[in-house]
Amino acid sequence: MTASRSRRPGMATPRTPRSVAVAAFAVTGALLLSGCGDQRDKVDGSASGKGLFNKLPKSVQNAGVIKVGSDIAFPPVEFKKSGRTVGIDPDLADALGKELGVRFEFANGTFDTLLTGLRSKRYDIAMSAMTDTKERQEGIDPEKGKKVSEGVDFVDYFQAGVSIYTRKGKTQSIETWDDLCGKKIVVQRGTVSHDLAKDQVKACEEKGNGKIAIEAFDNDVQAQTRLRAGGADAAASDFPVAAYAVQTSGGDDFEIVGEQVEAAPYGVAISKDNTQLRDALKAAFDEIIKNGAYEKVLKKWGVEAGAVTEAKINGGS
Description:
nine-stranded mixed beta sheet; D-Maltodextrin-Binding Protein, domain 2
């Protein structure tokens, strides 16, 4: 960082699970050593020869900046390293900026406040491993079952699922969500993982298999810390994040159990009244997919299996 974070501001409703092989993603030790750029280098808009700069709203052209709301505590998707914003999303934003002739400026915020910041015009976009769902598109709160905002549009650019992980060697035979009955799970607040956990509480109670205890945190790193300290039996997060947690611990702290579920698209969220920016971003994503810059970023972070062949608008369900 959902999910998928599979993270997503409290507007995510789980879909029918679809298993995805855990081996699909390979997160290598090179992640820790690879150089990572952030979006602070200026880009000359006049250098854009593909006309994409002219597709941007005049306000963005004049500013030369796209303001990005992001929960920058979701490695390897976006996180801080030596004071710099790095990860999959920042690297993709850098590639997009070269096509659009503007720079992307990341601002940190908690995940479940990003759409509020987008609606208040604090950000131009929210790019934070956010799952594109119909609820978010339509502004429906899944818990209240009613419309609470005008919703947002998405430009989908990646595919990921949710994984469960435990302390190394202490799986307690957990392999599926049903195995969590009677146990405690930690998640990031407002994500698809959080929604899945809440749905599983009901499923376990209906089966009489014991209640799941859920502890939700502002970011995934806090959840990992709680699990590492023995404060929970398991954690759930987007597969890239879970795999990165396992890899960066040297394989000593955590292990992934079972298979991914809830494979769904990550999308850049944009206000519905900003269709010009939405369409410009889609064109830029399609261009970096075509010219190989997109593939280069995904290979750098070992997540090629989540690649898409084209960007889509509101492709989530």
